[in-house]
C-alpha cells in the first residue's frame, strides 16, 4: 500500500504542480502585458510593473488551485488508465473505497495548502501591492464615495453615534479626507468634523489633524424664541450657539479600532477569514448591511474544501475505458468542469447577495452539487462499467 500511495502522490503532485505553474505563468504574462501602459507614469519602471504583477500571483494561485487539482488529477488518472496501470492496481486490490481514501488525503493536503495561501500569503501580497501603488500614486483612492464606518463614543452628555467617511489612504497609512458626523441618542446631528488627515490606533483612539469642527446645540439648551418674533423667523440666539472652529488637532476615543478601519478601507480580497468574520460581526452590531461580507466569509472559509471536491470529481475518469476517450479529451473535459464550477460559484454568490439567501448555503451549494455529481458518476461507473 505504501508503494501505491507513493505512486499516487508523486504522479498527481507533479501533474498538479505543472498545471498550476502553467496557469500562473499565463496569468503573469497577461497581467504584465495589460499593465505595460503604466511604465513611465509617476516614475514607474518596467521592473516596478513586473513586481506589482508578481504580487498578484498568490491571489491567482488561491483562485486557480482547485482547477489545477482537477485538471492534474484527471490527467494523471487518465494516463494511468490508458497505460493499464490503474487496471493493474485494481486487480492488485485497490478497491473503490481505498482509492477514495487515497485521493481524499491528497485533496485535504491541497486544501490545507489553499488555506495557507488564501489566509496568509495572498492577503500580505495584496497589501504589499497596495503599498507599492501608493508609493508612486501618493495615495490609495477608495472607489465610490469612499469608505463609511459606523461606531460609538462616550461623551459627558451621554453616548453618541458616529458616521465616519474616509476618502483615501496615503502611502504611509494615514487616512486622508476624513469627515465625521456625530449624532445624539435621538438621532439629531450634534457635530461635524472635517479633517485633512487622521490616524487611529488599536484601542480606537482617533487623532485628526487640520480639523474644521461645527457643533450644534441640543434643543433643550436653546433659549425659547421671543413671543413677538414670527414663527418662521430664525432664532438669532440659537444661531450664535452654533460654533464653527478650526483646530490643529482633535483626539477622541471610539469603538472603531485600527482592525475595523483597515477592513473598511482595504479591499475584501486582502482580508483573512478571521478578519472577515470580525468585520461582519461589527457590521451586524452597527445594523449595517453585512450580506456581502458574510457571503465572502463563508466562501473563503469553505473554498479550501473545493480541492477535495475536485479530487472526487476526477476519480471517475480513472474508471473510464482507455479507448472511450484519449487523455487530451479527458483533460479538456476537466477544464470545462473547472470552468463550470468557477462560473457556478460566482453566480451563486451574486444571486445570494441579491436574494438575501443564507450565506453559508450560498457558499456551500456549488461544492455540494459537484460532490454529489462526482460520487454519483463514480458509483455508476464502479457498478455498471
Give a verbal description of the structure.
The chain is α+β, with helices and mostly antiparallel strands and 385 residues long. The chain is built from twelve helices and seven strands. The protein folds into two domains: 230 residues, no CATH class; 120 residues. Helix content is 58%, strand content 18%. The protein starts with a helix and ends with a helix.
Features:
12 helices; alpha+beta; elongated; 2 domains; 385 residues; seven-stranded antiparallel beta sheet
Q: How many strands appear in the DSSP assignment?
A: 7
Biggest sheet character: 7 strands, antiparallel
Q: What Rg, in angstroms, do the CA atoms define?
A: 29 Å
Please work out how many helical segments DSSP would assign: 12
Strand content: 15-25%
H and E order: HHHHHEEEEEEHEHHHHHH
**Shape summary:** elongated
Summed over residues and divided by their number, the pLDDT gives a mean of 85
State the helicity in percent bands.
55-70%
Q: How many structural domains in the coordinates?
A: 2
Instruction: Give the termini separation.
Output: 25 Å
Contiguous low-pLDDT stretches (5 residues minimum) are 222-233
Report the structural category. Answer: alpha+beta
Q: What's the quick description here?
A:
With 385 residues, the protein is an alpha+beta fold.
Write the layout of secondary structure elements.
Blueprint: H1 2-34, H2 46-55, H3 57-82, H4 85-91, H5 96-137, E1 139-141, E2 147-155, E3 158-170, E4 175-183, E5 189-200, E6 205-215, H6 236-241, E7 243-253, H7 258-265, H8 273-285, H9 291-302, H10 305-314, H11 327-355, H12 359-384
Antiparallel strand pairs: 1-3, 2-3, 3-4, 4-5, 5-6, 6-7
Helix pairs in contact: 1-3, 2-5, 3-5, 3-10, 3-11, 5-10, 7-8, 8-9, 9-12, 10-12, 11-12
